[in-house]
Amino acid sequence: MPEISPRLTGINEGGDDGWGVFYKARRMKADGIDVTELTIGEHDIRTDPAILDAMHAAARGGHTGYAMIPGVAALRQRVADRIRNRTGVATTQANVLITPGGQAGLFAAHVAACPPGRRALYIDPYYATYPGTLRAAGAQAVAIPTRSEDGFLPDPAAVDAAAAQGAASLLINSPNNPTGVVYPDTTLRALADICTDRDLWLISDEVYDTQVWQGTHLSPRALPGMADRTLVIGSMSKSHAMTGSRIGWIVGPEPAIAALIDLATTTTYGVPGFIQDAALFALDQGTAFEARIAEPFRRRRDAVLDVIARQQIVRAIPSSGAMYLMLDIRATGLSGQDFALHLLDSHRIAVMPGESFGRSAAGHLRVALTVADDRLVQAVETLCAFAAKAAISA
C-alpha cells in the first residue's frame, strides 16, 4: 500500500503510547478476572440522569441535524459567563469555540499556536496524550523536566531556557494530571512573564478546575496582558461526569477563535446539538452540582493519604487537586512500570506507571481515585504492603 504519512506514524515516535498496563488490565477483565482499576480518570458514577433526560429531550425534540459549527449560541454564551464569573476576565461568546471534548481542543489549540516544525513546550510529567497531540499538530514536542522533590512544579529558568530556542507555545495543566499539583500564583506569574518576554502562546488545560482541594485555582488568562496570548481548554468530562459525551471548549482571543472555527469546519464540523443542549442544562445546575461531582475525590484523597501516612516506603506527592495521587515508590528499587505490572499480576490491582507520563515520573505511580472508598483504601493498603516487601528484597 502507499506510505502512511509520517505525521501519523510519528505521533508516538514508533514507541509505546504509555497505556500498556491499562490495556492488560482491560484484557484481564474481559476474561472474567476481577481487577481493581485505578488507572484512568473515569468517574465511578455515570452521567446524572437529569442530564441524560435533557439530552434525550433535545434529541427527541429534533436537535439531531447539523449544529452551528462554533457551537450553539446559548452554550457559547453560558461558557463565556462561567469563565467571566470565575476569572473576572471579560469574555463573550466570540471568545468561545465548542469542541468535541478537551482532547480535540488541545489539538486544535496547538494547530492555531504552532507553525509547522516550531517547538511546542510542555511540562514533564504530563497527561499521556500531550506529546503525541503536539506532534500530530505538526509541532516539535519539547518536554521540560521537573523533579519529584520539588512537587513536580516547573522551574521557570528551565522553561525560559527552552523558550529561548525558538518555541511558539507553552502547555500547562493546573490542577495537574497526573500529579494532582495546583500551580501556585508565583509559578503561574513567572510562566506568564516568560510567555510575554518570549512571545509565546500559553495553552492552559483547565479541565480539573472544579477539583481543587487546597488553595485556589488561578487561570493564567486572568493575569495582566495574558488574555491576548492564552488559549484555555475546558471540558464537561471531569466537572460533570460527562466523559463519553465528548463536549468541551477553547476560550481565547477573538481572532484565534475565528481561525479555529475555520479548522473546525474542515475537521470536526461541530458537536451534536443534543449533546450541547445537555451541556447547557448541566452548566445551568450551578456550582453546587459541580461540588457534588467533585466531593468523592476529595474524600478519597484524604483516605488514601491516611494510609500512606501509616508507612514509610511509599511517599505521596503533595496533591491539591484533581482525581489522582502520584506515589513515589523509588524506595522499592523497582521502576513504576515493573511495580505496576507485578502488582497487577499478583494482586489484580491496576495503577498507571509514572513512566506513562514522562521521564520525570520514573519510579512513581499514578493512582486514580475512581472506585468506592472501601475498595480504594484496601487496594492502597495492599499496594503499600507490596512495596514494603519489594523494598526488603531490593
UniProtKB/TrEMBL annotation:
It catalyses: L-aspartate + 2-oxoglutarate = oxaloacetate + L-glutamate. Its cofactor is pyridoxal 5'-phosphate. The keyword Transferase applies. InterPro entries: Aminotransferase_I/II_large, AspAT/PAT-like, NHTrfase_class1_PyrdxlP-BS. Signal peptide: none annotated. PANTHER family: ASPARTATE AMINOTRANSFERASE. This is Pyridoxal phosphate-dependent aminotransferase. It comes from Thalassococcus arenae.
